[in-house]
Design brief:
Layout (H helix, E strand, L loop, with lengths): L1 H31 L6 H18 L4 H24 L7 H23 L15 E3 L2 E3 L1 H23 L1 H11 L1 H6 L4 H27 L7 H4 L1 H8 L4 H26 L3 H16 L14
Antiparallel strand pairs: 1-2
């Protein structure tokens, strides 16, 4: 039972980070209709920028973290303005290919500046775990869970209570209607990318504190796809719930199936879940089915 609970707790921590990444992915898709294949690379860039501030410039982690969020906000804004805005009105496949190219460029830039060796943050959290009954919970896991929960709550409030958040929801619902109401749709597009860069950075920084940082960290961007398919491409709430589900199921596969078959199940299992969901509910558990009348 202790092993089971340990897997659940670890799965919730990793799943909450998946939820945060899926939030950025879903936000871009809802607002612009673009499937962003560079989400993992935004995570990678944000993690390395925070590491540079913390280690390279000897800035305390908490200040480095918020400086990185500000930097990545404008970075995401510029990506949309410089690259994506020029593609408005172009075929969707062209925009998708642009995001794939952008992911390769960002990863190459990271390798150019920081190399490919694994780098670690200085010790920020106590190494001694917290004992909860018979379970041992690492401080960095607990801090990651709390930080991600705070950001998810803040963004939920932002989308529901603020004028800009409501405008973003309006654009996601119907761009033409939003335009007719005087909403600056182009600015909303840019803001969507800026927020996606922020949530990716939060995930990247805490994953870096857990596992260290190298270019393979961008792999977590690929793991977003099973999450958004399970939750529904156009469902922000679904992305949050699906992230937790995938995180726990992935950990179960690693804890129970991997020892029996020699490994590999943990990495594959989320995609197996994605395929099964698409066979039963192509629009996800919480997504909206598109009904076309002929």
């Amino acid at each position: 039972m202790d092993f089971f609970l340990q897997l659940v707790i670890t799965g919730i921590v990793i799943g909450s980070i998946y939820s945060l990444l899926a939030l950025g992915f879903t936000l871009i898709y809802k607002a612009t209709g673009v499937v962003n294949f560079a989400q993992g690379e935004l995570l990678l860039v944000g993690a390395y920028i925070c590491l540079q501030f913390t280690v390279g410039y000897s800035i305390p982690f908490i200040f480095s973290f918020f400086m990185t969020l500000i930097f990545m906000f404008f970075f995401g804004f510029l990506i949309e303005k410089i690259f994506l805005r020029k593609m408005i009105g172009e075929p969707i496949i062209s925009i998708i290919m642009l995001t794939i190219g952008l992911s390769s460029v960002l990863k190459s830039v990271v390798q150019l500046f920081w190399g490919t060796n694994t780098r670690t943050f200085p010790r920020i959290f106590p190494e001694e775990p917290i004992a909860v009954m018979d379970l041992q919970i690492s401080y960095v896991y607990l801090a990651s869970l709390v930080a991600v929960a705070i950001f998810l709550i803040l963004f939920t409030i932002f989308f529901k209570k603020t004028k800009v958040g409501v405008a973003m929801r309006a654009v996601a619902s119907d761009q033409q209607a939003a335009l007719s109401m005087g909403i600056n749709v182009k600015r909303i597009f840019a803001l969507s990318w800026a927020i996606a860069a922020i949530v990716s950075t939060v995930g990247g920084v805490f994953l870096g504190n857990i596992n260290g940082i190298n270019t393979s960290l961008s792999h977590f961007g690929l793991m977003v796809f099973p999450v958004v398919i399970l939750g529904g491409l156009d469902s922000i709430g679904g992305a949050i719930i699906a992230g937790l589900i995938i995180g726990v199921l992935e950990n179960f596969a690693g804890g129970y199936i991997d020892p029996m078959i020699g490994g590999g199940a943990k990495e594959v299992f989320p995609f197996v879940v994605m395929i099964l969901v698409m066979m039963i509910r192509p629009y996800g558990l919480f997504g909206t089915a598109d009904v076309e009348k002929v």
